[in-house]
User: Which sequence fits this backbone?
């Protein structure tokens, strides 16, 4: 979009970003600022970052961004109007909020489930407690596309009403889902992208017509090789 509008764009990314994802971003002529995860997450919390000057900070939970995600929900309804359950990965909450808003506006009985890796489950603990909480034992993993430290205060009013539950997944389950998608469907997904399938296969989802939102395919080749060899990347 920045290229189409002929404006400069700089992206703030955590220092563990996969090289595959980084390379694809650089192909779009975007300036990259890599920072430690704690600084990156602080920027998510504060909605700003020192040094951006007069630039506009676009947050992953910006209303317009979430509205864009809502088109995924509309596409699901168009292709599969009798859907019973939709599963999305949970990172900052913008994706699932947009998707669920569209789905539940059409049919409130549709179940919208989040999924999180066992290394970072802030939504799971927050839904259980009935208030936004931090996940105390947070740690990074190869599932880099999701797994924040806490549920954002501004997103809580939405996810607490739009998300029916959050399924916690082991890293082994997610790795197995990546293998299944490659071997059976010739689809390469990153950890966050494969997590919804892992959730659907976990026997924690109600029976019925299920849609898994496969949200990304940026995974480094060395990690993918490790997974295809039956192991879990460190």
Assistant:
């Amino acid at each position: 979009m920045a290229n189409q509008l002929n404006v400069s764009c700089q992206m703030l990314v955590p220092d563990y970003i996969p090289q595959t994802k980084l390379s694809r971003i650089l192909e779009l002529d975007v300036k990259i600022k890599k920072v430690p995860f704690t600084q990156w997450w602080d920027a998510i919390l504060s909605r700003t970052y020192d040094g951006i000057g007069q630039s506009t900070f676009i947050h992953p939970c910006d209303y317009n961004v979430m509205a864009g995600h809502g088109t995924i929900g509309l596409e699901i309804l168009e292709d599969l109007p009798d859907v019973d359950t939709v599963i999305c990965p949970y990172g900052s909450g913008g994706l699932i909020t947009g998707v669920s808003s569209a789905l539940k506006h059409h049919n409130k009985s549709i179940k919208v489930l989040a999924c999180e890796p066992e290394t970072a489950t802030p939504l799971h603990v927050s839904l259980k407690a009935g208030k936004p909480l931090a996940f105390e034992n947070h740690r990074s993993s190869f599932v880099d596309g999701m797994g924040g430290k806490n549920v954002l205060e501004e997103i809580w009013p939405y996810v607490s009403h739009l998300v029916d539950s959050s399924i916690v997944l082991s890293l082994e389950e997610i790795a197995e889902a990546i293998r299944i998608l490659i071997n059976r469907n010739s689809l390469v997904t990153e950890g966050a992208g494969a997590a919804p399938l892992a959730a659907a296969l976990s026997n924690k989802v109600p029976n019925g017509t299920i849609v898994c939102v496969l949200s990304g395919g940026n995974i480094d080749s060395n990690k993918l090789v490790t997974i295809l060899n039956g192991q879990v990347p460190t």
User: Anything to note?
Assistant: The mean pLDDT is 93. The CA atoms of residues 85 and 210 lie 5 Å apart.
